[in-house]
Amino acid sequence: MSPSISESETGRKSKLKEFLDEDICEDILLESELLLLSFATGIQDAAAWPDYMCFASNQTGNTLFLAIGVAGLTHDAYSFPNIGVSLSLFVAGGLVMGQLGNYFGVRRRLWLLISNLIQTALVFCALIIQYSWPIKRDGSAAMAVIACLAFSSGAQVAMSRSLKVTEITTAMATAAFIDVVIDPSLANIRNRLRNRRVLFLVMLTAGCFVGAFAQREAEKLRLQNWGLAVGLEELDLSDEHNHLLDDTKTNAAVKDLLLAIEAVCRGEEKVYANQAAGKEKQSSKDHLLPRHGPRDSKREKLRWAFGAKAKRVAQIEKFTSLVQNLHDLVPINNIRPGKSRSSIFDRRNDLKYESYNCDEIRRDIHIWLLHASTSPSELYEILVERRIEGTCDWVLDRPWFLGWTSSTFPDEKAKILWVNGSAGFGKSIICAWITHELLSKLKPLGYFFISSDFESRRDPFIAIRSWLSQLLRNPTVFALVHEAWANNFEQKAT
Q1: Engineered SS bond to 229: which of 182, 308, 332, 461, CB 3.0-4.6 Å?
Q2: Is 23 helix (H, G, I), strand (E, B) or coil?
Q3: Ranges for the Prion-inhibition and propagation HeLo domain (predicted)?
């Protein structure tokens, strides 16, 4: 090798070393990179929440949900183990990478390159884990995904804060909103700091919506692929369907989950219809996965999107949960030929709602209907327990009771049984025992007990809500109430 070539290579290496050892400057390229990271953060959190019930970057939300959960106010509405992992790994990522940055130089180009490579590698690790194991809300695989994303997010925020571009945090929007509105130069045409904050908020919000809509479309595709894999074509079973669908209980559970998904999709259309005034909503009655509402102007679509943000996130979350329940109930890798072709919905009146997969949804609806942790039905259970063995049975043999419960009772007469007596004579216990007897013979049946010390005695509608909560095991009632809940979950049931 000639001396000139050797000197040339040495010179290139020296220039590369100098380039990597330099501190980066604050310019439009750095701003653009931080804005792209903000966009990616929005996508990541919007996609992580429906799958794992926690955020990877938004630790303000995680801290709030953790406190609410510890106080027992959410009834398992969030995944507290995942939130704990996310919060702790986010702090760990910021601590480790932040201190390493202080040691090597927070603006040093080589360190920033290494930091970004580590963050990217962690995101790809989360991707590999997520697609190597079935998506579960809890468990070691879920925690591993959250750990990778949260550590990467902590490192990302530590890096962006160390660069001193405080207007683009890449994750936290609360301060940016306030900083924009209190800016004394807000109305100035040339205001670089304001422009940074506004662009950051736009990119973060855009990422959230892109992630949410992508998650929804992915779940729809996942649902369609599941139907093809298990042999479910247009709500009919093919000749080579999954043998698990021949089981009555499994069949009933699948049917109810599909009804719930249809209700969520109908609610999705109503969000658009309520926001886009004067536009006719496209009917989804005959479609499992409805199309979007009519095409509108970009301004109206943007107004609709921002106005329905919370409802959209909850709908996507429920949609994701329901699709996962279908995969858990009838795995696509468990396919054996079943019986001959038959329709799931042909047996609607004969199937009972007995699937544990819908217990969580039903529990959420119970809470929404009753507004409180104490159900009026608990008073009935207390009264039944107070009954002394052998008492109250005499009521069941009386002619007036037998006539009242008879199927030949005249339809034109009011079917009311009035139990009258002085205070303390046991009327409430007799009524509770009559209810106990009727529950063993009549399905469906709703009841409501109230006492003078009951906190909601001034609300007559709680009786109707209580009856609905008791009838949720009926598929038709469940579908109707679930649709109302999906569209009005932010408000108390009335």
Answers
A1: 332
A2: strand
A3: 218-332
Mean pLDDT of 410-423: 79
Cα atoms found within 13 Å of the Cα of residue 14, Cβ hemisphere only: 6
Per the confidence metrics, is the pTM higher than 0.70? Answer: no
Task: Give residues with Cβ within 8 angstroms of 94, minimum separation 6.
Answer: 154, 155, 157, 158
In angstroms, the CA 161 to CA 163 distance is: 5
Say whether the peptide bond before residue 184 is cis (omega within 30 degrees of 0). no
The average pLDDT across 290-295 equals: 40
Residue 276 pLDDT class (50, 70, 90 cuts): very low
Q: Can you tell me the distance from the alpha carbon of 318 to that of 299, in angstroms, rounded to the nearest whole number?
A: 28
CA–CA separation, 186 and 452 (whole Å): 59
- The Cα–Cα gap between 327 and 430 comes to 47
More confident residue, 279 or 163: 163
Q: Which two tokens stand for residue 338?
A: 């079943």
Find tokens 């709908």 and name the residue: 315
Contacts (Cβ under 8 Å, ≥6 apart) of 461: 494
- Which has more confidence, 17 or 258? 17
396's tokens: 């069941």
Which tokens belong to 356? 């544990």
Three-state secondary-structure class, residue 164: coil
Q: What are the start-end ranges of the H helices in 163-297? A: 174-181, 192-230, 248-275
CA atoms within 13 A on the CB side of 417: 17
The first and second tokens of residue 371, run together, are 């507004």
Run of H or E residues at 178 = helix 174-181
Share of the chain above pLDDT 70, in %: 71
Enumerate residues 6+ apart whose C-beta is below 8 A from 146.
48, 52, 54, 56, 82, 85, 86, 89
Is residue 302 scored above 80 in pLDDT?
A: no
d(CA 264, CA 246) in angstroms, rounded, equals: 26
Q: What integer pLDDT is reported at residue 461 of this predicted model?
A: 75
Q: What are phi and psi of 181, to 5 degrees?
A: -75, -20
Tokens of 78: 């969030």
Please identify which residue in the block is written with the tokens 């990877």.
Answer: 56
In the predicted structure, residue 29 carries a pLDDT above the cut 50: yes
Q: Give the DSSP H or E segment for 236.
A: strand 236-237
Q: Which of 251, 315, 311, 253 is nearest to 289 (CA)?
A: 315
- pLDDT (0 to 100) of residue 158: 92
100's tokens:
């390493």
Determine how β-strand 232-233 pairs with β-strand 236-237.
antiparallel
Q: Are 83 and 59 in contact (CB under 8 A)?
A: no
